[in-house]
Amino acid sequence: MSTTYGLHRAMLLNRNGTAVVFEDRRRTYAELADRVARLAGALKALGIARGDRVAVLSLNQDRYIEFFLGVAWAGAVIVPLNIRWSAPENEDALRDCRPKILFVDAAFAAMGREIAERVGSLSVIYADDAPLLGSQTLPDYESLLVAASPVTDAEAGDDELAGIFYTGGTTGRSKGVMLSHRNLMANARNMLAESLAGENTVYLNAAPMFHLANAAAMYLHFLAGGSQAVLRAFTPERLAQTIERFKVTDIPLVPTMIQMFVDDPSTSRYDLSSLRLVLYGASPMGEALMNRGIEKLPGTKFVQAYGMTELSPCATFLPWKDHVGEGRAKGRHRSGGRPAIMVDVRIVDASGSSFCWERRSSPPSARRSGVRSNSCR
Description:
This protein is of the alpha/beta class.
């Protein structure tokens, strides 16, 4: 199952339905599919072959969704670059994965061109609505699409490489995690099994779109057949405006963003009643912030996802029922959740042996001393 499967399914079930909204632009699934097929045609005309790398350095925009889908449609490999990195850090990633094309927007056109000149053998394509500043000249994305002929989906195999996602590099140089179509779609199916999306959802790409956490949710919502909105850059008030304008139902946020959002008085001026789900992760959410979030967004469920890039990325989910009621009374809201469908989780000690605490029927003294249960494997 290729990462383009969700688009094919949406075309079959709802081709005239809204696929993507961004600022003043709205596109149906039929329009999106045509642009994706044309992008794949343009890439092939530029010499992109199956397995070649195509990089992106851009703020959030609706074209970012086309990059993910169009590169896969061409049978190539997407490489989203970190917008928070310096030019030398992104150059290091580009030298590592050796893409042939780099898409940039207005914010990163200068950096992209600078890096391309140093790396060599890298074509930079400008993809934004704003005109290029100064004397810069780059091939234009929209012009390429107009001139391109649509091509059929390459229908990449399960085990073909779909993307290279660079980790944070907290313990050294950033590593490019190579994920297959099977990896990414298995994760999307796991999230779907957790009831995290449906046909009537409006998902907001509010997290940085270069990050796999957002890409995972993007693939999920194409699989579910809902609509997607895009927020170019996060501020609390911009987020509230976008929720009201597009009747957003689902958003991904990290706890820091949740704190900024719920504590900003400007957000109270907007109608947030459409919001049904906040999917959060990257760090735990404190109990006080959790309480403020629930109070600020009544009728909205909070679900925590835990994972890492190497896991495609989600491993566990903490469902809404464990944030409130009996689950909360048992302290489950402070946990990392339960394994996702088709995911095995094991707790091990320093030697790699499975580790468990004694069952709750054991005396408190035994539990405190860390006696292992004979039921552990």
